[in-house]
Amino acid sequence: MTADQEKKQAALEAVKYIKNNMVVGLGTGSTAKHMIEAVGQMVAEGMNLTCVPSSDATEKLAKELGIKIVELHEVDHIDVTIDGADEFDGDFQLIKGGGGALLREKILAWNTKFNIIIADSSKDVKKLGAFKLPVEVIPFATKQIKTYLEAEGLKPVQRMKEGNEYRTDENNNILDIDIFEVEDLQELEIKLLKIPGVVETGLFLDSTSLIIVGKEGGPEVKERS
Ligand SMILES: O=C(CO)[C@H](O)[C@H](O)COP(=O)(O)O
Questions:
Q1: Reported ipTM
Q2: Does the annotation list 99 as a binding residue?
Q3: Buried b (16+ CB within 10 A) or exposed e, 29-43
Q4: What is the second-level CATH architecture of the domain 133-202?
């Protein structure tokens, strides 16, 4: 199976957790795209769903598919959010934000009763950190934060796009940092969030209830114990 086939398989398994009249959080990325297309199909077949998107790109796609989109403040909870990940480990810890949508994704996850992560098998790792951790920062402070993180040995690289500095949907920058040598991720998360100008990190340490991985022979559903 190709990675994309695994992504689609995981997405199609995940949408089985969506029931009529639910409020659904829609993730961002190539795996989430398969899920959004499946949700569009369910809506076209008559299911009543209210969805909260995690990025401008997801909102655009969902609207094109006829999915009812609302802003977060218009709902009092989200029943289920389905999103991708850049890496996950055996403790249901994730690195997210490769697609730059980590801030809204983390807000959705925090406001969601049941978070499902969908992934191809390459995202399953023993230890997080081969993928660089995205840290969203306010442009006013990007240079100073980068200098500080360099001194901490975290090798920050400012994300670029087509020769220009990358901007998130919230108009912030991203510093991608190397956390492979870091032992205590909780401690790292606290340390990063204490820096003025750091808005959010792509570490999702305890929000995930279920991980669905696309695999030859059928999807693997991992439940948090
Ligand atoms: O966190 C994300 C976007 O901010 C994505 O979920 C993550 O980057 C995985 O993307 P893909 O499904 O394309 O591999």
A1: 0.98
A2: yes
A3: bebbbbbbbbbbebb
A4: 2-Layer Sandwich (3.30)
